[in-house]
Fold this protein.
Amino acid sequence: MSSFGFGLVTAAVLALATVGFTMQFAVTNVLNLAYGSVMINSAFVTYYLNIHGVPTWVALFGGVATGAIASWLLNQFVFTPFQRRNRPPITIVIVALGVDLVGTFGLQAIVGGSYVSFRQSPGHEYHFLGMFFSGLQLVILGIAVVVLGIIHWLLRYTRLGKAMRATSANPSLARNSGVKTKTIISTTWLISGALCGLAGTVFALNTGVFEATSAQLYIVLLLAAMFLGGPGEPYGAMFGALVIGLSTEISAAYVNPQYKEVIAFVALLGMLTFRPYGIFGSEKTL
Amino acid sequence: MSVDLSKAGMVLATSDLSAGYDGRAIVSEIAVEASPGQVISIVGPNGSGKSTLLKSLVGVVKVLGGHVKLGDADITNMAPEEIAKLGVGYVPQIDDVFPPLSVKENLEIGGYLLARREIPARVDAVLEVFPRLKNMMTRKAGKLSGGERKMLAMGRVLMLSPSVLVLDEPTANLAPIVATQLLEEYVRGFAEHGSTVLLVEQRAKAALRISDWTYVLGGGRVVLAGAPKDLEQNPVFVESFLGGGTRPAPTK
């Protein structure tokens, strides 16, 4: 049961990250493989604010803002120019991969290769039903529940959320209905980027110690969770994150924890082979 | 149709219009005009450029030459969302709804340019025109039948009370009885309530029955135009479109 508890926290972090990742894919058709790099850069901004005296939960907003601004800039100055020239999706994927490497190793060149940690105590330990959580982990779980609830509210009940879903489903028809899709796409990058920054910070908080390349393999977990739930499906992403988060942590109780990403990769291959549009997606999604 | 959803119609006209993709014209030298209270239909064989012409009017396809005018305003190559704002409602032939969104959400997106407080009343008004949609408000648009889907597509554009309705083959893939109801009750009804209706239709006979004027496209150009009763007397038209002989070969 204790690994189930770890799995829940891992799933919460992964859900925050995957929802942002899949929103970018759904609304802008970009498979942003640089997502992990933006996550870890955001985490380092939070970290530097933190070690300069800003309390962790206040510094976190710095990480969120970094994720939002970096993602918006990436779309505006890297992905959009390629899309405007009608480059095929594979070109965008390769560009994103390049950005990921530049972002990660550029950060490493600046901050060095040492592990760092926040000035944040893990807090008291709490036991429920055979699972144990630190106070910090409970806060992370709480943040995930609240933020994912806000995303649900945004997508279901607000004009902006409906316009985002309409743009994702049929951008041309959305424009004919009066939706300024360029504005909607920019806003999507800001919101999904904020989620990316938040996920990066809570990921770093949850792992305890981290360095510039800590999120490099995280893209495998993100892809696995996204394809499991259905590409471009925010609710599918939440479900996929739960399954991948739990399965990787529970399996880590039986096999070497270093193989966590391998478990996720096997899940990804399985989905791509048997149901590439995921559990919540439809064939049309791809 | 008892509910008036349309603003006073406006004249939609093109002059010497050419439009197409990647700089290559699919339609050329097109001059058409649609006036308020009228159904203007465009018929022609597959590949004659009918859909491209409509798309160029609503900003989806680039106009390469000539002009599109809405009333006195030149709307040539204006962004689709700006054209919608000016009162032109467009129902494409395919991909005419947002499949993952519910019927209610599709209508709400149709009213995207309205003030939030105006939307519920407008949804109610659209539901009076298409009462069948009332019982399926929470159903996803992707789960509707062809006829229901087309009603939703039209309901979506009616949300903004358009002055001009541009309809691309609204009866495609519909059963004949549903197609007839859609054309005679709704499309004709919109015009009778003052809207300008520009209609592309494969079912030439049905289109003529509800039209005030018809343009015939062939090879990306207007090859014939006239009132339906005159076209019905034209042997070339009858042979090509009303089942009197072989259709002209596609030219695209």
In short: Confidence is low (pLDDT under 50) at residues 245-252 of chain B. The radius of gyration of chain B is 17 Å.
